[in-house]
């Protein structure tokens, strides 16, 4: 470790220790802030209960259950504790007053130590060979001591759980019917304001806010009877409040722990029936939960001060608008809304609305932020399930398609900012936002019955966290950011299944999922500061428009629009830093979906889906290591891998159809720009983009019956982007090491039939980009500005494959336009004698793209294909290419090696290009009649399966015919073949 760094740490520890000793004694005489809560412990839990309009049907009559309104609270226990605090402070006065008088000299000593520490820190940084090194301002003096014996530390808790049980009807051996319109609203707002500035172990806050409304409304049930309900229920709960504290110039002060939870539970609008029962619900339910607020602190010039751990969580749990029956009937219609919000914002740095704002400027282990932020959802709505009965949702009382709707919002946290300027171990951020809605809706299933879920509309938004900002100039181990951001979905909707029955489902969805944002920091004139590590993941996953039947009928029809985004790139800046402002990231975009699929076994099935998906992870990255050491480097592994199966049909003894229309956009990472000018081991980039896609569609398979699969596919996948850096006048600076990878797998327009008819049609348009252009420079540098790039691609695609047997007919139509690019040209400059400006790029690619692969055994196969695709690696076509049509590759030929150079074709010496062309041997010098005839290799002896056993002796005979030629070299070629035994080579 640098000497100046050791001295900086020692100074901070000494200053912090004196500060803790002095201010700990002095703060015994604190004065109470009139804006703060009266007591240090403020905990309250409330359980308001509302029970109305519920009914039970028994033989011969309906019983209306009594209403009940009450609130259970912990106030009788917690209020006496709060009231006991003022007398306790008065009782402590004989002790606190003398201690306060004795504390003044210690405060003075702490201030002198702080000023000395600042001067030593400035002198230490002057030892670093940098320009324009910043000078610390004088340390702020401790705040005046006050007289709270508990030093302003606060523990608060606010739990609100309203319970709403309304409009439920249950018929047991009788009938029950009710109508209810109810509203329940409860909330607390409690701000926490305190301070530990200039004190030791003061002004710390633990504040829990939890809002958890429970709604059980509008449900109907029937067993040997009927239950019916209608109406609405609205419920809201709030436990809000902002937290403000400070630990400036304090020790272990001004820290905050703020868990904020919003977890509404909704069990409403369902219809459930048992044997010989019937249930009907037509209900509108709404549940809203809100908790917490913004968090504000300050740990400037403190030790272990102003740190914030914020943990907001929003999690609505919902089962609404479902119809379930066993040997009965059930109908459910209406709407369901759930909203959960945790945290709040206040204008902060740069006037950006901020969730967490703090600072560790000139502090030790201060102003750090840890913030896991979860926006989740668990929901089952508008689905129907029947066993030996009939269940309907979204069809209206007359079953005419009135529809059912559900919506949900889950949001947490927001933008956060801090600073570690001039500090040690300060202003760091650990950020973990994650957004994950898990939903099932519009699904119908029937077993010996009918389950029909029609016309469901769903809207979902899940947003977690935001961007982050911290600055660590003139610091040590400060302003570093580590962030894991996840935006994902798990959905199943618009599907149907029938087993000895009927199942139908239809639904539309609009969904927005966002986690995290841009990360910004800096590390000028610092050591081990301003670095960023970021792992954003965008992975929307869904099953929709699926249909499956077994001795029954089914259909699934769905439309989906999803936008998922995780992270947003980052920016880190450094001049004259040591191991500072480096950026490491692995953004991953991996949408995975199966849709528009129909399968049947002795039945009839139809699946159709329309998909529009956008998935993004990360973004552009900017780093700067100018005139630094081991600074401004970037290591990135962006991965874009959309995986989809759609427009597929499979049938056994029946009919199945799958239809799909897909538009998907997947992107991971972006452009990368940095510099290491004048630096050592600075401004280098290691970039390994993985741009890929895997898809299959327009495929049908059938055994005794008919199957038809149709898919329109429009997909783009992009990983990484352009890379630019500089290493001028540097040492091991501005170098680029990259390996753009681009595997492609696709199968569209295929059909297979055994004693039946199968038709497959696939129109594929795919655009893939892995990496981009690379530019750097190493002028005036040593081992700088070099490029080592190895782009690689492997493509395996099949279009128009057909197979038919035993009287089957297979027909396929496939159109393909796959455009793929891995890497682009590279540019650099530098003095090669200094091993700078080396440009090394070696692409490797292989492509196997087959069309019209027919297999027929006592059947008929037909395929129609078209291709306009192109794959380029470093602007070159793949070296290895199999023929598009299998029939084009004779058994005695090798696949194309476009662009590859065989070893014996390479010049033996550098002077080879100077050989005069007029002395090269002419092909006509060898008599054509001496070449082996075609009869020398009988077609029946071709090595189709068994290797070379069937052609034994043919190749040696061909080699021996070389003896008829004049193989001696003449002119300038004389002697170059000496020592080469041709017979030996031919006989291998």
From TrEMBL:
Residues 410-419, 815-828 have a biased composition (Low complexity). Keywords: Signal. Residues 1-28 form the signal peptide. The lineage of its organism: Bacteria, Bacillati, Actinomycetota, Actinomycetes, Pseudonocardiales. Residues 396-426, 815-834 are annotated as: Disordered. The keyword Signal applies. This is Uncharacterized protein. It comes from Prauserella marina.
């Amino acid at each position: 470790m640098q000497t100046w760094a050791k001295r900086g740490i020692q100074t901070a520890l000494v200053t912090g220790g004196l500060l803790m000793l002095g201010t700990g004694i002095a703060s015994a005489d604190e004065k109470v802030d009139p804006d703060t809560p009266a007591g240090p412990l403020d905990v309250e839990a409330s359980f308001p209960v509302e029970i109305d309009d519920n009914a039970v049907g028994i033989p011969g009559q309906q019983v209306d259950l009594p209403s009940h309104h009450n609130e259970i609270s912990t106030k009788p226990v917690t209020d006496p504790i709060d009231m006991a605090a003022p007398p306790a402070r008065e009782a402590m006065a004989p002790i606190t007053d003398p201690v306060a008088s004795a504390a003044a000299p210690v405060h003075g000593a702490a201030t002198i130590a702080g000023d000395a520490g600042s001067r030593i820190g400035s002198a230490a940084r002057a030892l670093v060979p940098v320009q324009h090194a910043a000078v610390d301002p004088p340390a702020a003096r401790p705040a005046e001591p006050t007289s709270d014996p508990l030093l302003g530390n606060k523990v608060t808790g606010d739990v609100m759980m309203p319970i709403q049980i309304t409009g439920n009807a249950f018929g047991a051996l009788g009938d029950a019917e009710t109508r209810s319109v109810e509203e329940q609203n409860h909330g607390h707002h409690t701000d926490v304001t305190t301070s530990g500035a200039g004190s030791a172990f003061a002004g710390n806050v633990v504040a829990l806010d939890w809002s958890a409304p429970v709604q059980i409304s509008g449900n109907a049930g029937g067993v040997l009877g009927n239950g019916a309900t209608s109406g609405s229920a609205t419920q809201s709960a709030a436990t809000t409040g902002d937290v403000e504290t400070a630990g400036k110039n304090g020790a272990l002060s001004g820290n905050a722990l703020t868990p904020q939870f919003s977890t509404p539970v909704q069990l409403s609008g369902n219809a459930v029936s048992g044997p010989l029962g019937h249930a009907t619900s037509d209900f509108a339910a709404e549940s809203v939960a809100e908790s917490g607020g913004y968090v504000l602190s300050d740990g400037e010039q403190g030790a272990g001060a102003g740190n914030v751990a914020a943990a907001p969580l929003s999690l609505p749990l919902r089962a609404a608008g479902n119809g379930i029956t066993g040997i009965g009937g059930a109908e459910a219609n209406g709407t369901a809304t759930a909203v959960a919000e945790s945290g709040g914002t206040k204008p902060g740095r740069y006037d950006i609305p901020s969730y967490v704002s703090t600072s560790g400027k000139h502090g030790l282990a201060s102003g750090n932020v840890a913030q896991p932020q979860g926006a989740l959802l668990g929901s089952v709505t508008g689905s129907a399930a029947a066993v030996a009965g009939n269940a309907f949702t979204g069809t209206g009382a007359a079953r005419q398609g009135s529809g059912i709707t559900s919506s949900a919002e889950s949001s947490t946290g927001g933008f956060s900012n801090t600073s570690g300027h001039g500090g040690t171990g300060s202003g760091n951020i650990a950020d973990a936002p994650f957004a994950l809605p898990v939903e099932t809706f519009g699904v119908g299933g029937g077993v010996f019955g009918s389950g029909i879920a029609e016309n469901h509309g769903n809207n979902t938004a899940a947003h977690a966290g935001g961007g982050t900002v911290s600055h660590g100039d003139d610091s040590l181990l400060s302003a570093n950011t580590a962030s894991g951001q996840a935006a994902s979905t798990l959905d199943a909707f618009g599907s149907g299944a029938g087993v000895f029955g009927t199942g139908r489902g239809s639904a539309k969805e609009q969904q927005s999922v966002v986690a995290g944002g841009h990360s910004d920091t800096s590390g000028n004139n610092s050591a081990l500061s301003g670095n960023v590590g970021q792992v954003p993941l965008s992975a929307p996953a869904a099953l929709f428009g699926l249909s499956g039947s077994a001795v029954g009928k089914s259909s699934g029809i769905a439309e989906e629009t999803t936008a998922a985004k995780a992270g947003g790139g980052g920016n880190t800046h450094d001049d004259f830093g040591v191991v500072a402002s480096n950026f490491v990231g692995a953004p991953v975009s991996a949408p995975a979906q199966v849709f528009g699929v129909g399968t049947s076994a002795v039945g009839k099935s139809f699946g159709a889906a329309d998909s529009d998906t956008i998935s993004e992870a990360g973004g552009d990255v900017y780093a700067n290591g100018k005139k630094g050491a081991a600074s401004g480097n970037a290591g990135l592994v962006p991965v874009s891998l959309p995986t989809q199966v759609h427009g597929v049909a499979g049938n056994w003894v029946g009919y199945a159809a799958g239809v799909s229309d897909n538009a998907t956009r997947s992107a991971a990472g972006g452009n990368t720009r940095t510099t290491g000018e004048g630096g050592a081991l600075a401004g280098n980039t290691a970039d390994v983009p993985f741009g890929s896609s895997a898809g299959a569609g327009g495929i049908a398979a059938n055994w005794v019956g008919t199957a038809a699969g149709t898919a329109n596919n429009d997909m783009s996948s992009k990983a990484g982007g352009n890379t630019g850096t500089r290493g001028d006048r540097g040492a091991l600076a501005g170098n680029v090491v990259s390996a753009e990878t681009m595997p492609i797998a696709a199968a569209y327009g295929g059909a297979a039939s055994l004693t039946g008819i199968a038709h497959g049609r696939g129109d594929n348009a795919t655009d893939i980009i892995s990496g981009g252009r690379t530019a750097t420079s190493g002028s005036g540098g040593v081992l700088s500005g070099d490029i080592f790039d190895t782009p690689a691609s492997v493509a395996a695609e099949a279009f128009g494959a057909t197979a038919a047997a035993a009287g089957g007919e297979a027909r396929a139509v496939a159109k393909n336009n796959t455009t793929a690019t891995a890497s682009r040209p590279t540019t650099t400059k530098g003095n090669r004698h200094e091993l700078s400006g080396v440009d090394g790029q070696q692409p490797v690619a292989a492509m196997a793209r087959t069309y019209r692969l027919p297999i027929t055994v006592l059947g008929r196969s037909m395929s129609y294909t078209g291709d306009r695709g192109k794959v380029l690696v470093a602007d070159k076509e793949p070296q290895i290419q199999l023929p598009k049509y299998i029939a084009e590759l004779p058994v005695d030929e090798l696949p194309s090696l476009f662009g590859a150079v065989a070893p014996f074709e390479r010049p033996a010496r550098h002077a080879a290009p100077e050989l005069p062309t007029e002395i090269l041997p002419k092909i006509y010098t060898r008599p054509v009649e001496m070449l082996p005839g075609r009869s020398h290799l009988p077609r029946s002896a071709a090595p189709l399966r068994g290797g070379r056993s069937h052609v034994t002796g043919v190749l040696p005979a061909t080699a021996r015919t070389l003896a008829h030629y004049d193989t001696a070299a003449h002119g300038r070629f004389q002697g170059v073949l000496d020592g080469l035994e041709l017979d030996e080579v031919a006989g291998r």
